[in-house]
Amino acid sequence: MSASRLNFEHHRQLTRGLLYCLFALAGWLGHCGLGLAGTTILAVLSDGAETYEEAVRGLREGLGDRARVKVGTVDGLADADLGLHPGDNLLLVPIGMRAVRFVARNLPAGASVLALLVPKQSFSAIVWPAGTGRHQISAVYLDQPLQRTLQLIQFMDPRLKRVGIVVSEPAPDADDAGLGELPRDAQAMARASGLSLATQTVDNGKGVAEALRHLLPQVDVLLLLPDRLVVNSANVQHVLLTSYRYRVPVVGFSPGLVKAGAVAAVYSTPGHIGREGGRMAAIWYGGGDLPAPRHAGGFDLDINERVARSLGLVPPDERLLRRRLGGER
User: Got the DSSP string for 166-205?
Assistant: First the structure.
């Protein structure tokens, strides 16, 4: 056997041991009255980023005192056989798309999955092992319900009628997969809000500039979705500045985009998403099936009044706008 193969097997055995210890510890806690014996909730983080840690804190808040949550990262659990556990009733909570793909490749038979911080379209493209039932797989999506975001545009200014969106081709095997196509009823949702949609599709980040040149002259507002091939740290300033030169306001999906120059954003924080997931996990922990995938009920709203006024918009009262959108904070 080659040296590289020996190293691989050694790493694999160490990681299997780590997982076994996590499962065994969870079972021990159950016997001590700190959780249900034989039941494990394991959060698998894409990496150690604070965003994912915040989601874990929300998950624990949503669960309350019902159960303990063990935490690992993809790198810490890499190459592990997640089926090696002492017969636990297992809920895996992958946080972020990298963790979802890792769990999908290593899913033990009978385990349930509750994914957090995942775009709806990217999550829908995941292929799960044969025999995995729908009741075993659920998620709390990163993106907002499209209807909520369209309502934000509608309430921002009645002159904003034509909405432009750039999406990327789906790339199901990539960690930063594109968003893919919009929901089939997207045009119907837009019409229900008195809006129309114009879309451009790109197959890589280099096509975004060309897509904007085609799209921006045709629209009143640009809607950015959480698609890392379309908007990311490398091109976000170009996207915002290009839109501003065309006098087209941008509605985003994060407070960072509003600070950078978008006129508004409605978004669910990692804490919102984690707490929603915690409430769903509590149902599973109590013996029920996981609820169906959903968007977080909680959301926040930010408006950049300076940019809005510079583009000739009259920013609505944020509290009134929040009430019109509904939902919890």
Answer: EEE---TTSTT----SPPTTHHHHHHHTT-EEEEEEESSG
CB 121 within 8 A of CB 179: yes
Q: In this predicted structure, what is the pLDDT of residue 108?
A: 86
Which amino acid would we find at residue 76?
G
Q: How far, in Å, are 46, 61, 250, 265 from residue 223 at the CA level? A: 27, 32, 6, 9
What are the φ/ψ torsions at residue 51 (nearest 5 degrees)? Answer: -55, -45
200 shares a domain with 161: yes
* Residues linked to residue 90 through DSSP beta bridges, in sequence order: 40
User: In angstroms, what CA-CA distances link 103 with 43, 44, 128, 191?
Assistant: 11, 8, 9, 38
- The answer to whether residues 167 and 48 belong to one domain is no
Q: Which residues span the domain enclosing 181?
A: 146-267+299-325
Q: Is 206 exposed, middle or buried (0-12, 13-18, 19+ CB in 10 A)?
A: exposed
CATH number for the domain spanning 132: value is 3.40.50.2300
For the purposes of burial, counting CB atoms within 10 Å of the CB of 66, is it exposed (0-12), middle (13-18) or buried (19 or more)?
Answer: middle
Identify whether residues 117 and 170 lie together within a single domain.
Answer: no
Half-sphere exposure (CA, 13 Å, Cβ side) for 263?
28
pLDDT tens-digit series, residues 40-53: 899 999 999 999 99
Q: Which residues pair with 75 in a beta bridge?
A: none
Rg, the chain, Cα only: 22
pLDDT of 287 above 50: yes
Specify whether the CB–CB gap between 179 and 119 falls below 8 A. yes
Query: Residue 81: exposed, middle, or buried by beta-carbon count in 10 A (0-12, 13-18, 19+)?
Result: middle
pLDDT in tens, 302-329: 999 999 999 999 888 888 888 888 755 4
Q: How far apart are CA 106 and CA 108, in angstroms?
A: 6
